[in-house]
Every structure is written in C-alpha cells, then in structure tokens.
TrEMBL record:
This is 4-hydroxybenzoate polyprenyltransferase. Belongs to the UbiA prenyltransferase family. Its main location: membrane. The keyword Cell inner membrane applies. It is a multi-pass membrane protein.
Length: 273
C-alpha cells in the first residue's frame, strides 16, 4: 500500500534543506530520513483510508490494496499510528523546534486528503504540504528557520501543485460525476494544462532565487535549466486526449527532477569555481 517511491519527491528536498543549513552530520541525516519516510507513510496511509470508499468506485483506483481487501482497514490504521509515533520520536530527537513544528506538519499531512472534496485549490494545498520537506530538513538541522529556505519551499509547492494538476486529468470524467474538485474539473483540461505550465514557470523562478540567495555556483544553475527541460518534457508527454504516458510524466520525470537537484545542489555547494 505504501511504496518507497512515494517518498522520492519530497525526501531529496529535506536533504537539500539540511545541506543548505550548513549544519549536518550522520545523526541528522538519519533522523531526517526516518522523519520524512514516516511522515510520508502517515500521509499516504491516511489518504488511502480517507479515500477508501471513493477508491472502490474509481476504475483507476479499484485495484488498490484497501479496495480489494489485500490490506484491511484495521491494519492500515495500525500502520498509520505506528508511523505517527516514529515520526514524532524522530522529530523530538532532532531538536525542540522540529518537535513543535511536527504537529503543524501533521495537520497538513492529515487534512490535504479532504481538500478535493470542497475546493479546486486542492493542488495548491498539496503543494504547500510537500513544501514542508525542505523546511523540515532545515529546521531539523539547525533548530530555526531562515527566510531564504522558503524560496526552495515555494519551488516545491508550485512544482508539486503543477504536476498534481496534470495528474488529475486522468480522473476528470470520474471527478465530474462524483463531485470531486480539481482545476481540470473547474476549468477544463486545456486551461488546466495552462495552469500547470504557469505553476511550473513560477517554480523555476523560485528555484533560481534559491540558488542566487544561497550563492551556489554554476553547477546549480545548470541543474536548474536541466529541471526546466525535464518540466517541458513532462508537459509534452501529457496529452488530455491520450493519457497513456501520464505515469511516465508523473513518476519518472519528477523522480529525475528530484535526483538532479540533489546532485547539482551538492556540486553547487561544495565544488569551487
């Protein structure tokens, strides 16, 4: 029900947050990793539990573990509570502020699954939820927040929000019939693609601002333009009339973006001109 690749989008940005803090060691990286994976597990498990009845009706999600009975609701709840406890312990072991803000993070992780039931702004809320990753990595490392790390958080928010709009295209027919809210439902598939492109353009600007504010070298700028190229490819792969390549765009391309940015931020921080 919960796969490691569910963490691949957010986890690298927690590492980048740690890296940009200039305060890191093995203990911090291990605790941040545990906190991120357990938090993501809480979010994904709750998402499956909350959407259980809807998933049974949606042809795309009917084969998931809960609808087919491969995983029981009771088991899902036990897993969620266990993941919650692991998350809180890891946050507590990092520092006091990380522990206090962990409850704010949990609020977003728990509530984002409900937003599509009443607002087409659900994509923005999901983006804001995933934007906690770099903030959490930074706070976990140093115990305070720096204004500049919010540029990276805003990149994540608009990047995630943009591809979540594209991902929602495949459920357009079901969502229209069942009262599920999204930008494709509100504005139609063509305008939804425009919204997604604008989101990704704004994300690219915030990525450049992050690199500039942290005075990273040209490797980081090269990485930013590689990300831009990958985003363009992602949009070219998504055709509202033929969504067969949506999973390639969603999982493969966005995974490449995360990995590219971890590598180039490392190079941008540690290799001198």
């Amino acid at each position: 029900m919960i796969k490691f690749e569910h963490s691949i989008f957010a986890l690298p940005f927690a590492y980048i947050g740690v890296l940009l803090s200039n305060n890191y060691n093995l203990k911090i990286f291990v605790l941040v990793t545990i906190a991120m994976i357990s938090a993501r597990s809480v979010a994904m498990a709750l998402n499956r539990i909350i959407d259980y009845k809807t998933d049974k009706l949606n042809p795309r999600t009917q084969g998931r573990e809960l609808p087919i009975g491969k995983v029981q609701l009771k088991e899902a709840w036990v897993f969620t509570i266990f993941s919650f406890i692991v998350f809180e312990i890891s946050a507590y072991l990092l520092n006091p502020l990380a522990f206090k803000l962990s409850f704010v993070a949990l609020f977003f992780l728990i509530t984002y699954s409900y937003t599509k039931r009443f607002t087409w702004l659900c994509h923005i809320y999901l983006g804001a939820t995933d934007a906690i990753a770099p903030l959490g990595g930074f706070v976990g490392a140093v115990g305070y927040l720096d204004i500049n790390i919010f540029y990276l958080a805003l990149f994540v928010a608009f990047w995630i929000g943009g591809f979540d709009i594209l991902y929602a295209l495949q459920d357009l027919t079901f969502d229209l019939k069942n009262g599920v809210h999204s930008i494709p439902v509100k504005f139609g598939p063509n305008l939804a693609r425009v919204f997604a492109a604008l989101f990704h353009l704004v994300a690219f600007i915030f990525l450049l601002l992050t690199i500039y504010m942290y005075k990273l070298n040209y490797f980081a700028y090269i990485g930013a333009f590689l990300v831009l190229c990958l985003l363009i490819i992602e949009h070219l792969l998504v055709d509202p009339k033929d969504l067969k390549k949506i999973n390639i765009a969603f999982f493969n391309i966005n995974s490449y973006i995360s990995i590219v940015l971890v590598i180039v931020f490392l190079l941008g921080r540690f290799i001198n001109d």
